[in-house]
Amino acid sequence: VFGSARFEEDHRYYQLAREVGAELAKAGYAVMTGGGPGIMEAANRGAHEAGGLSIGCNIELPFEQKPNPYLDKFIEFEHFFIRKVMLVKYSSAFIVMPGGFGTLDEAFEVITLVQTNKLERFPIISMGGKEFWGQLGDFMRYTMLKEAVISPEDTDFIRPAETAADAIKLIRDQSAGLLSSTADI
Questions:
Q1: CA angle centred on 158, ends 157 and 164, rounded to 5°
Q2: How far apart are CA 35 and CA 74, in angstroms?
Q3: What stretches of 24-80 adopt beta strand conformation (E)?
Q4: Sign of CA dihedral 8, 61, 55, 118
Q5: Using one digit for the tens of pLDDT, what is the confidence trace for 26-73?
């Protein structure tokens, strides 16, 4: 689960990430995040509270990034690139919650690896709705695709989900090969 370190416990995206973490754990998945506060803490907290495995790949930073208290296991990294390798290597699906540049970096790293066949096509799910992700989807479809810097099938890499249950269904459906290529971020 990727997302911002800046959302507090009372924010709707924190609550959504907590639900996602719980539903992933109930479905039998371990939940792995960057291990810090905000969305990461929320997803780890949901998994922990649901009795699932909660893992963090923390980064040493001067602010924002301390291991959250809901981690069963965590490792700390000095460099972002090694942290991203670990987040990608041991994942079977990616849920991208609202976030900033770091979240976009992680999401586009995964998309690039899938696009270039360096990574098996795993479910990549955006959560937070069109309110947060809509302009990015428009940019991909109406600018990048129009200028032919991506292919039409590249716009299908990210699947939108509104609820934690929707995300679990997308993960199961894509893992079973049941999804068509009609994504709309």
A1: 140
A2: 7
A3: 31-33, 54-59, 73-77
A4: positive
A5: 999 999 999 999 999 999 999 999 999 999 999 887 765 689 999 999
